[in-house]
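Quick one, probably user error.
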């Protein structure tokens, strides 16, 4: 494995928690990650916008990093209801999710918008988790690699080679998100290997070998180890299980052990 591919685990809290429970969850994750010491993977939590500030305070002094679930592509202006990359940086975010399947398929974000958001995140000096993944009917008709490739190529348009290290790709099959269904380790590995090949074609074999690609979709302590042991799986983006501190910490431990 390339030395730059330190395992990375994200906890996407989605539209869950409140001020008190979010801060408590953050404190538990921070304490658990601190107890793992050097064995802890890179760890990022993605709370709802309104709790970023209180979660940032709860994480103060911890190696656990803060991320936002979405962003708007302009820095400021008349965009009622939106939040900009500099605002996210201002409250202590280092990471932003871009192109999550719920943004694509529930909120109808298209490839051009996702590309604009990714460019805005990078322009602000932030890091991105770019999510890609196929729907069930696309998998069943053999389109998994085509869809992942189209989403990755389109989102990465105009992303310069020197900025690619700030992009983690999350492969999240839509049918596996929040359903309790997981891609088999072999299917996930195959999808990751194809995404890495796309990066090699778009950038270089060296850049592709250094890029981190997470798996997401019903990751739990029970399946994390086997998924994370795959050669092209560099971490996990975790939804439901990230709300349960013991489960999320067990996934962190699986990541630390899996690539040791
Ligand atoms: P899940 O969500 O772990 O609940 O399937 C994953 C995600 O949406 O990132």
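Nope, works fine. Designed sequence:
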């Amino acid at each position: 494995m390339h030395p730059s591919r330190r395992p990375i685990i994200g906890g996407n809290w989605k539209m869950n928690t409140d001020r008190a429970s979010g801060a408590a969850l953050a404190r538990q994750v921070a304490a658990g990650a601190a107890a793992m010491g050097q064995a802890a993977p890179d760890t990022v939590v993605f709370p709802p916008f309104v709790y970023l500030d209180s979660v940032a305070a709860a994480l103060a002094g911890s190696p656990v990093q803060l991320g936002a679930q979405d962003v708007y592509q302009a820095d400021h202006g008349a965009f009622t209801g939106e939040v900009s990359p500099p605002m996210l940086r201002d409250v202590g975010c280092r990471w932003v999710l871009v192109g999550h399947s719920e943004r694509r398929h529930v909120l109808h974000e298209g490839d051009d918008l996702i590309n604009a958001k990714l460019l805005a995140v990078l322009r602000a000096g932030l890091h991105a988790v770019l999510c890609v993944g196929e729907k069930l009917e696309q998998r069943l008709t053999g389109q998994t690699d085509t869809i992942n490739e189209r989403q990755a190529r389109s989102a990465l348009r105009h992303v310069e080679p020197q900025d690619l290290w700030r992009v983690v790709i999350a492969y999240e099959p839509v049918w596996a998100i929040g359903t309790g269904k997981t891609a088999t380790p072999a299917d996930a590995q195959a999808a990751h290997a194809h995404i890495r090949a796309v990066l090699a074609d778009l950038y270089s074999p060296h850049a592709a070998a250094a890029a981190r690609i997470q798996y997401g979709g019903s990751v739990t302590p029970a399946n994390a180890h086997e998924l994370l042991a795959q050669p092209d799986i560099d971490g996990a983006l975790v939804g439901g299980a990230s709300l349960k501190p013991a489960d999320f910490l067990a996934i962190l431990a699986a990541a630390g052990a899996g690539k040791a």
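The pocket of 2-phosphoglycolic acid is lined by residues 12, 172, 177-178, 216-219, 237-241 (CB under 6 Å).
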